[in-house]
Amino acid sequence: MEALIALVLMSFLAVIAVAILRLRDGITAVMLSGIYSLVSAGVFVLMDAVDVAFTEAAVGGGISTVLLLATLHRTNRLTRPTHHRAAVPLIVVLITGAALVYGTWDMPHYGDADSPPNQHVGLRYVEESPKTTGIPNVVTSVLSSYRGYDTLGEATVVLTAAVGVLALLGARRRKDAAHDR
Amino acid sequence: MIADQVILRTTARLLTPIIWLFALYVQTHGDYGPGGGFQAGVLFAAGFILYALVNGLGAAEALVPVRVSEAMMPLGVLLYVGVGFAGMLAGGNFLDYGVLADDPKKGQHLGIIVIELGVGITVAGVMIQIFSAFARRSS
What is the C-alpha to C-alpha distance for residues A126 and A139, in angstroms, rounded to an integer? Predict the structure, then answer.
């Protein structure tokens, strides 16, 4: 049953991706990419990665969609039709895709208990987290306690990114000053 | 004009407080269920954005003033770093939460709640600021 749901969701993803490629209307493409995020969130839930699904639904399905719509509002919503041949890109994509699929054969199977991520430090986190932190959600204890430095780095990256975006889009004060003149 | 549509306006007005309440739940229950600071911050911003989309940016900024969301961005990171230094002052390593309370488990819990709050505050501020910058350019 789970495999069937996964298959249906994955087919949805493929259909949506192809539909986005074929669209000329930016707004429809943005809405479809939001739906793509929502379906991916469903896939993550199926893989028991609820925290990731949560983030994907909120950021990918929500905020990115709104930001992309705001960007479209400033630009042309229709893309120009392209006339160049797609043969070379198609071959490149097929070879890259084949290489990636070939690479997955060496990867451990999904949920494999003997795979490296489930053996070394991951196992220790799962076993020791309740004893040392007393927190039931291991994801939170790994992110905030065991990997506290990384999360601090991520928070700083989010702040830095915002400073960059605000510098590009023009800070509020400069705009106010322009109005006063 | 979207602001003239009574159903949209009423729904947005009803949904925003519910989304914010859910954000608070996600923020405070990150150690028990899925979620945490990042997701809570994004949800909080999503509530703001919904309100701003329907009622206009001005009305939304009456709820969360620009200065507040601007100050939230560095405040969260400072809170996070502050917890790190608090651990050092208490005699442990940087970001060592175990020393923050008498019982290491309680210290861990306390540290995690505060740093998650820091992440949530920064993410909410950043998302609101970025959206507002886009919306201001669009109008």
Answer: 9
